[in-house]
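Structure first, sequence second, as always.
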């Protein structure tokens, strides 16, 4: 029986104030960092100043530790398991409402852009998105960045008054 490889790492990134920005899990830390740096979604990389790499762990253990760290330490730029469930529920609700619209108004599927049907489809779709947003508010990377920057401003003001 072969042993499960211990080749995964859990990493954390902090900013200059010691605020936890991100927690991740990877088999190749250097490659993963380069991916983060070139991703438009990884807004946190521009603020990262300090890193901690722990491991190596078995993959299953590393994923569990990553999830526990995200849920327990609340890094600014990660989704908690609750937020991931919220995103899934958003998508399910949106699909369910679009399916109901298709059954109620089949003439809107498909339709030509610019047609009367298109205008009605766009209006109906906008109403569905409002319903979904009301039930499950989206937490975007831009929202996460704004929250982080707001907290950094507060810390800077506190440091200036100290």
């Amino acid at each position: 029986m072969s042993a499960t490889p211990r080749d995964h790492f859990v990493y954390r990134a902090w900013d200059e104030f010691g605020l936890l920005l991100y927690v991740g899990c990877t088999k190749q830390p250097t490659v993963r960092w380069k991916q983060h740096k070139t991703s438009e979604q990884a807004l946190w990389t521009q603020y990262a100043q300090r890193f901690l790499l722990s491991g190596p762990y078995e993959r299953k253990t590393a994923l569990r530790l990553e999830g526990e760290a995200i849920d327990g330490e609340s890094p600014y730029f990660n989704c908690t398991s609750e937020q991931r469930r919220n995103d899934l529920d958003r998508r399910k609700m949106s699909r369910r409402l679009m399916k109901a619209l298709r059954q109620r108004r089949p003439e809107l599927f498909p339709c030509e852009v610019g047609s009367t049907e298109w205008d009605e489809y766009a209006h109906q779709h906008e109403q569905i998105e409002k319903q979904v947003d009301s039930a499950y508010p989206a937490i975007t990377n831009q929202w996460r960045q704004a929250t982080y920057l707001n907290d950094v401003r507060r810390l800077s003001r506190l440091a200036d008054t100290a």
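Margin note: The chain has two domains: 6-73, 81-138.
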